[in-house]
Amino acid sequence: MNKNKFISAILMVVMLVAMPAVMAQDFLTIDVVRINGDRAEDGDILYVERGEEMRVRVTVEAGSEDVRNAQIQGLISGYRYAQFERDMVTDYTRTFNLPAGQKRSFDLNLKVPTYMDMKDVKLRIIVSDENSPDLVTYTYQLSVHGIAEERALEITDFHISPSTTMDAGRAISSTLRVRNHGNHRLDDVTARISIPALGISAFETIDMIRPDESVSFEALVLRIPPNALAGEYEVIATVEFDRFHSVRETKRLTIRAPDVPVEPEMETTITVPESIQLEAGRSSIYPILIENKGTKAQNYVLSVSGVSDWGTSRFDPASVVVVRGGESQTVYLHLTPDAGTEAGDHVFRVKVQSAEETKEFSAVATVKEDRVARMDLRNVLEWALVILVIVLIILGLVLVFTRLRKGGKGDSEDETQTYY
Q: Which of 35, 121, 357, 387 registers the highest number of CB atoms within 10 A of its CB?
């Protein structure tokens, strides 16, 4: 009797243990998953690039019972800006019903964000319904890499100031910011802004942009010809890199007809960038465009404040310039952060003063970390140590030879002495 009770108890435990597996089997299973047309098994490692679109087709099969109000979710985990770009990294199907033993396919659309870190993350396919306590999950490891070199550079900002509606004869200043989303550095990066219909352009070049680095081009100034016809013009920003690749963006500029009434303006207009990128120990140019819209020549005195705490400055061609009536001139402020200047933002002010008016502007100088300077300092210290060791060795040898010579001369003098 006791033996039968013992056997019954064992069978009860086995049934309780096996029951969840039976329930899971009766729910719904994933039959096949295809990502961009290729079959992907649970646990596969997938190579993806930033910005890559992922078309996921999931085929599911109902178990021994009908499935009610089920739903499939796709999720790319590990993106820091997921709350702002959730439409990229998550997608859901509508709820669906599926009779027992039947199959059905559903499509999910995901995208690897351009600003996602280059690392390994998870792609999860999750299936659930309204009643089952279990989830059916497929998990893939995504190895996220940078965008291919020919598409790695992105123009993140392109602005025209002071306005996109201008009079003929005026000048515009452009700010262009780009970012490298690739795996490798991009060399010989040249930014060019042009208005082809007017035959005018300006350009600026930097040596390289490292992966995940953003840089700004701010010394791009165009003067609209005085005889330009009224109408809309296309302003084209083109960035060329690594000799054979380029990216471009366009803006619309409206030139007003001479008879369009405009509000009275000051005699002098100053156009300056809002910020500038700097490197410790290196000089960078901050352009200051002075437009004298009066009829008489004006003397302008330029000064800068807030720089002496972290660097040096000078004006080119000079801090005092003469601009004739109806003309303009660009003065270049050379800014050089001191070696060892702390990386980060530093605010400085520029003042332009004439006999009739004074204008003052604030700008932000962002000093980047000087990795090269630190390496150079280390090399100097290493060489100084080597030279110091060599000097000590030479001094030691000189002392030894000096003592030997003194000893030799003493013996010689004793032998040649004469006694009287």
A: 35
